[in-house]
Write a structure and sequence with these properties.
single chain; alpha+beta; 7-stranded antiparallel β-sheet; two-stranded antiparallel ribbon; 9 strands; globular
């Protein structure tokens, strides 16, 4: 049963930002909706999204997703939008206020972790993140390699 729900969850996954988990310590996550045009949602459903360099800002009490590349829809026409345009995030006022408080600390940013379709709507999982130092990244890689080696050894016994 768990496998079916996992498969269903992965079918809806559009894009994932693996580099964010490598570059940042993610302390908190929040799910946000996206304001998209018709051709943009078609590109999202075609998995033509890149979250790698994306981030979010809060301006004038509104959350904006910046630098996320949603490719132009192939069969689109004059209604195609700029792939790197800023997109509004749909959040409750309480969530925006909470994120504004969290972003006051130095070195804290809001990064997109995943984009997926939920009940027919495009959603983004945003993470409140603090940057890692180079030695933290090396430590994480070392720990991951050790765990892989342990799994290989345990598999044979």
């Amino acid at each position: 049963m768990a496998k079916k729900s996992q498969q269903k969850k992965n079918e809806n996954l559009i894009a994932q930002n693996k580099k964010a988990r490598h570059d940042y310590f993610v302390t908190d996550t929040v799910e946000a909706g996206l304001v998209l045009t018709g051709t943009e949602i078609k590109s999202v459903r075609a998995h033509r999204v890149n979250l790698k360099d994306g981030f979010a800002q809060i301006r004038n009490g509104e959350a904006w997703l910046m630098n996320v590349h949603i490719s132009e829809y192939d069969n689109g026409n004059i209604f195609n939008q700029d792939p790197l345009r800023n997109r509004k995030l749909l959040l409750h006022k309480k969530e925006i206020n909470r994120l504004t408080g969290a972003l006051q600390d130095k070195g804290v940013t809001l990064v997109p972790l995943k984009m997926y379709i939920k009940h027919g709507y495009a959603k983004v999982l945003m993470g409140v993140a603090k940057g890692k130092h180079q030695y933290d990244k090396r430590e994480a890689i070392k720990r991951r390699e050790q765990n892989r080696e342990i799994e290989r050894v345990m598999k044979h016994y």
